[in-house]
Amino acid sequence: MDDRERRRLALEFLETFSGPDVEAVLARMTPEPAWAFFANRFPGRDGVRAIHRASKELYREGSHDRRIDGLWVDGDTVLVKTTLRARTFKDEDYENLYMMILHFEGDRIALVEEMMDTAYANEKFAGWQMGD
Q1: Domains, the chain, with CATH or none
Q2: DSSP characters for 44-98?
Q3: Residue 1: per-residue pLDDT
Q4: Is 79 exposed, middle or buried (0-12, 13-18, 19+ CB in 10 A)?
Q5: N or C: which end of the chain has fewer CB atoms below 10 A?
Q6: SS3 for 24?
Q7: Stretch 3-15: mean pLDDT
Q8: DSSP assignment of 98-120, as one string?
């Protein structure tokens, strides 16, 4: 697989993640994927489901607007600098810069590392608990 194809798959994955279908997200991942949110690791398909569910709880349905600010491919790793705009569950505007690091095994994503401005996110999402 060449860099152009990994780039395409990474962008397709992020677009799919913004949608409602977690099974479509998982179809783009390895059989035992993981999602790392800073030091917290969410292993397996259930871990990815939990992250996807949290995203649906945090943001109003259909409010995701993702801008790609930069994308770099280095072998099996794709780094995506992106700005996410959305409406929160509290019906507030949200705009945050993210760095997504996608680790590929073949044409599937094995690991997603997600980083953002956590001070801002914590302020916007105050009162929310995962799994509520």
Answers
A1: 3-117 (3.10.450.50)
A2: HHHHHHHHHHHHHHHB-TT--EEEEEEEEEETTEEEEEEEEEEEBTTS-EEEEEE
A3: 85
A4: middle
A5: C
A6: helix
A7: 96
A8: EEEEEEEETTEEEEEEEEE-HHH
Handedness of CA 118, 37, 105, 47 (dihedral sign): negative
Instruction: Give me 71's structure tokens.
Output: 């994308």
CA–CA gap between residue 81 and residue 69 (Å, rounded): 5
Triad 106, 19, 1: Cα angle to 5°: 15
Query: What are the tens digits of pLDDT across the range 47-80?
Result: 999 999 999 988 998 888 999 999 999 999 999 9
Instruction: State which of 57-61, 98-102, 127-131 shows the largest mean pLDDT.
Output: 98-102
The pTM assigned to this predicted structure is 0.92
Contact between 64 and 84 under an 8 Å Cβ cutoff? The reply is: yes
Record the tokens describing residue 54, joined without a space: 């949290």
Residue 27, SS3? coil
131: confidence class by pLDDT, cuts 50, 70, 90: low
